[in-house]
Structure formats: C-alpha cells, structure tokens
Amino acid sequence: MNREVDLTNCDREPIHIPGSIQPFGFLIALLSDFSICIASENVQQYLGIECADLLQRPVAGVLSETAVKTIRGRVDYLTGPDAVERVFGVQLQADGPLFDLAIHFSGAYLIIEAEPSVIETDVNSGELVRLMLGRVRKTRTLTELAQESARQLRILTGFDRVMVYRFHPDGSGEVIAEAASSGLESFLGLHYPASDIPKQARLLYQRNWLRIIADVNETPATLLSSASHSAGLLDLSMSVLRSVSPIHIEYLRNMGVGASMSVSILRDGKLWGLFACHHYSARHLSFERRTAAELFGQMVSWIVEGREREDDVAYEAKAHRIQERLMETAATHAHSKRAVIDFIPDYRRMIACDGVAVWSEGEVTLNGETPTEKEVRDLVDFINRTSPGRIFATSEIAKVYAAGESYRDRAAGFLAIPISRMPRDCLIFFRREILRSVNWAGDPNKPYLEGPNGPRLTPRKSFELWQQVVRGQSKPWSSADLHIAEGLRITLLEVILQLADLAARERQGAQERQELMIAELNHRVRNILSLVRGLVAQGKDSATGIEEFTSVLGGRIQALARAHDQITNLNWAPVALKALVESEAGAYLGSRADRIQMDGPDVALDPKAFATLALVVHEMMTNSAKYGALADSVGQVQIVWKVDQGSGLVIDWKEKGGPPVQPPSRRGFGTTIIERSIPFDLKGDAEIRFDLLGVQARFVIPANFVEMMPTLANAPGRIEMKEEAAPRLSDTALIVEDNLIIAMSAEVILLELGARHVDTVASVTEALKSIERARPNFALLDLNLGSESSIPVGNKLFELGVPFIFATGYGERAPIPEELGSVPVIQKPYTREVVENALGRLIKLPST
Q: What residue ranges define each of the domains in the chain, with the CATH number in brackets?
C-alpha cells in the first residue's frame, strides 16, 4: 500500500499522491548504514538544516550521538511487518528541543518520524487507560459499553464529537454510540454507505490503530530524496505523519470538520468498527495522549471481542450438545436419507432460522417458511454450480441469485451446507425478510460528480437525513452460525459415511450368510440323502419281505416328513412336544390314539431336537403297535415329561396292559435309533428297558434345545406355570461393544431400564478386567468384536452366575457354544423394546 489510498469508490484505480506528510512533524529515512536518503522538506523548521543540505550529510552530522544510540537501541525491538516503536522526550541535537519519535521499517528504509514533545504533567498513559477501562467494564450491554467508551475517549481527547462507528457485513457503517458537545446535531443511528470508507482504507485501519488529521486546511510537507532514491516510491502505510488524500480532505470539509482522529476497534484481527473523532476547528494531540487513546482502543477491542465471544460460545455450546445427541441417534438409522431428514427440528434449534430444506437423493423435504419444492430444486442447482462442496451463506438472496427475488419475503437469506461427497445433497437454512427503516447520512445511491480535483470522483456534499426502507434482506448469518454450520457439516458427513460403511458391512454379511445358507442347504441335502440311504439299507437287513420293508421304510420317512412339515410351518421356530406325540399317535394308531395318555408342561423343541425326537417317537410307536401295549385292544402307553432345571427335558415312556414283553433277539435299526439318536445328535440321554409287564424308556433332551411355552390358565391335564414380569436392571451393567455410537445408544437403554451405572468396554481383555474389578449385575455382549468374539466373556459371566444377553448383526442362529445355548440373542441395531423383550426371556444362569 503506497501512501494514503482513500477512495470513495473501490471500483476505480487507486489514487496515487506525491509522497508527503502532515507538517506537525518531520520525517527522515535511513538505510542500513544509517545514511540519510529521504527527508521531508520541513526539516529546516525543526532542525535548522535545509533538506538538500541534510541529504548530503552523514547522520552523525545531523543527530547527536546519544540520539543515534537511542534510535539504534529501539530498532532491535521492531518485530513483524507492522511494528512501530515509540520514544518520548528525545533530544535529537545537542542543547536542542525534545522530540517524540515513531520508528518503523518500510522495505529497506528505517523511517524516523519526529514531532515536538508536548509536556503534559496530567497525562500518564497507563494510569489514564486504567481509570477509563474501570468505568467501561462496569457496563452490561454492548450499547452501554460503546456509549461509555465514546464518553471516556472524548474526555481524554477533547474532540467536539466522538462516535463509535460499527461496520455491517455489507460494508456500510452505523453510528451506534456518540458523545458530543451541546448544540451539535446528533449523528446517532445514522448509516453511511460502504463507499464512504472504501476497502483500501479499511485495510489501513486494520494495520494502523490510530490516525489523526490535525488540520484539514494545512499544506502537506513533501518528501525529497537523494539522487539514487525516489521519495515517490516510499511506502508510508505505517507512518503516523502520513498526509491525507485530497478526496478525504474534501469529504471532511463537506461535513464541516476541521480535524479528525480515528481509533480502530478490531475483532480477531478484522475491522469491527472505529472510534471516529471530529473537531470543528484544527486540533492536535500530543504523541503521548494519542498513545493513550490507541491503548484504550486496543483494550476496548479485547473487551468487545470477549463479550461477543461469550455469546458465541454459549450459542455454539448449545448447538454442540444438540449435535452430540444427533450423532448418537443418527448412527442407529439404517438409511442415510432418514438419518438426515428425521432431525430437522434439531437443526432449527442449532442455527436460528425460519425454515429448513433438505435435498437428499433427489427428493426435497421442507420444514417451516421456505421456498416451494420446485424453487428449492432450482436453488440447489445454482448452489452446486457456484459453490460445490462448500458452505454458502447470504443475507440478501437477490444479490447472488436473481430468481430468489420472487420469494425474498419467505427466504431473503439462506445458508447451504453440503452433506455428501459429491455436490449433490445439501441442507439449507432460510431466514425471512426483515423490513427495516434505515436513516442514512445523505442518499447512499446519489451519484458522484466531477469535483475540484479534476476529472475523477468527488465525495458527496449532502449529509442531510435520508430515510430508506430496506427490503430483501434477512438477519445476517454470524460467524458463530458459520462455525456451527461447519461442525454440523462434518457431523453429518461422518454419520453418512458411517452408515454407508455399516451398509457395506451388512451387504458383505448378507452375502456371507447367503453363502453359509447355501452351504448349510447342501449339507442338509447330503445328510437327508445319507439318512434315506441308511434307512433303506437298515430296513432291508431287518425286514422279512418286500412288503414289510416297504412299510417300515415308508413309516420312517413319513415320520421325518411330518416333523419337517411341523417345523417349516412355524418358520423353523421351536415346535410343541405335545404336537409331535399327537401327530405320531394319530398317524399310526388311528382310533387307538386315545390309549395314549400325555402329561407335562407346555414345552417347545428346537427344530434340530424336534426332528431327532420325531424318529425316536416314531420307532417307539411302531414297536408298541407291533409288539407292545398297543398291539392288543386293552394296553395303554403313558408319556410323562417334566422340565428339570439341571438336566433339561425328561420324557418317561411307560407301557402297561399289553401282551408279555420279550426282549428282542437281535438289535435292529429301530432299536439303534431309539438308543443312540438323542445321545449322538443332541448330547442327551436315552434308556430303554424291556420289562415283562411293559416297555419302559427315559429320554433326556438338553436344556438348550427346550423352550417353555405360555400356559393357558386352568387348562385340564396341564401344569400351570406362573408368568413372571420382565426383570428390571439394577446396580452395575456391563456393555461389550466395539462401535462407540451403538455403545452410547445401549448405555441410554440400560439406564432407562434401571441400571444405576453402565461400564462400556470394546474388547475381551477390557471386559475381563472390568469383571475382575467389579462383578456386574447384568451384561450386554456384542458377539462379534471385529477380530475376536465375546464368547470368553460369556463363559466368565456364566461361571459367575451373571445374567447376560448376546447381541449380533448375524441373526438369531449365530454360532454360540452349546453351554451358552439358553442365552437370548438380539439383533442389532436394537431398541429398548428389543432389549426389554430379551430380558423377559432371560433365564438366570446357575452359579458354578
């Protein structure tokens, strides 16, 4: 930035003015060897040496040795491109007056600016600022803070008017506080267009905390240089004496201002506003008093930043809490689109808005005050063309998207958040139009005319109150809104990617299950073929003729078929034991079926156990009908079963009243099925005795193949069972889950079900350590933990008698050891109802 660039229209080329400074001080520029190469023409006024003569002298011939040593010492403190060092009360020449110095680098030059010291015994910069800030800190609102700050700065500087001028996002400014002498017209509440302080000037305000124009009518002092240098190329951006553009001088004269000073108010290094000080005659402040004003401006900037940041932090903290709950819940969704649109009310609580639109997978979902579905589709096309993959926000839609003019009353501003990898899906917040009356200091749209400075722009002359009703604008989106939007974008992308990964794993799991099912089907077909082949071979060996062989073989195959039909009719769910006995009795005994007496609780058998027991019961029925109690007209069979807590299901078969029993002379295939099927296939027990008065048999089915069925109250011949209420949790619960989101959801469920504390771990090692530290009262185990299984944890809990439930993404028929076969298995993702139902089916495991 070369010299003062102060424009009234940023679209024009910068106005370059000859290097010059305000005449209340002088300037010299030194090279690294401390030779003087540039100086202001007014050095003679202050040092008594003509400028041309000064440029020929070494610095030691101009400044005293003490002054040069002081300046050299301060150079070491200059760090950073915009650093300026101040030294007060320096005697530049022996027996000469005292000067206040400002020292800074400008490219290769060391700039020394000096102005006569003004001794003010009542000015102590640090103490003054301390007292001023003590009053400012007592304010509560931003308006009170600005008003008190303006009053304190006016007391310090003595200017006729001190204003706090705040910039709006569109570049315009507003006077939000004012302290002025009595009799002056108030500027409070007036707005000024962005062109009054153009972009280049704002950049200088960000670099220079303070700028003073002591007298708008004084003539600047030009800069002269030695033959090998050019004063016109010297960058005076950080100069405290830098002169003013004629355009800005004309602007101040049009306002009737004789002197002005500005002190910047920054937030996060950006221009938030200004202290604008006006005096209606010439006014110069001492360097020390200006330093106090600059320090005060810096401290006020930090107070403003702190207070606004507190509001932003509270706003963002609320949004973050909602965002955490959203992420936890969204992870349980099975579909990414639903995971986005189901939480629209939460989005509206995170970012203040009047409506929300979600564009996901080619569909629009609207909530609140928004454009129509077609208008949103067109807007999404525009966003994806102009700002793909980035957050896009505007408070005046018509300025960036002409078609938005037609619905600015519903959606004058929007904030768009991309929520997919491709620029396709997005979440859009809308804010409606806010009609407001703005008081301008003159017509902001009035064209600029050619002025006294030649064929170029001239600042406006009219500052009369000019009112305008602003339309088509919404409440601006704040930096906090944008921070929240960025956090929400990352959260939604994580959720969607997580769901996509989960879907991919589920697809892979489904493929693996399909392959496993095909392999299982092949295995079952081979087993059935082998079984039929065995039935044929054994039946042939034991039959005495073709007719008997056909009858025996057909009966056994029919028994298997009936059992299979009963299983498949219930979709491979457990089948009632009584149904098996009744089916076999009806098939083989016909009218003699009433000679079979049954007694026992309502129990159901696992499909595998049901098929095995079907063959055993068929052989027992066949033998009884041929040779035993059912062979004549008076014999009976009594079948009694009970559930033994330690052994499982015990079935007793007793025959009586039939012909005398003769033990078989040889052990045929039927006897082999009776004696060996249950021990071999189910790891149970089977025993048959051929007593003279009737055949006696006992069969024991392990508990993991048995399930109790609801019993009808007062049903004859049945043992009533009291149905217990679903148990509630208490004390400590353990969750073993390697997915954090699912674990967090499970914690909430277990706490809702009564657990007082939930310990969550992600591996078998951590789980065993947790159990060793404190035995839980209940556990929920993810069966598949990536590269390991939670079966060892289940075994440990089984040993300790701690009830637990398995959870899996691979279905109810997960590969669980037989000793844990009675443990309920639930499928993820699960809900409270699923867990509660499993608790209702949970049978407390015995302690060992």
A: 20-116 (3.30.450.20), 125-221+238-309 (3.30.450.40), 331-433+473-503 (3.30.450.270), 543-708 (3.30.565.10), 732-841 (3.40.50.2300)
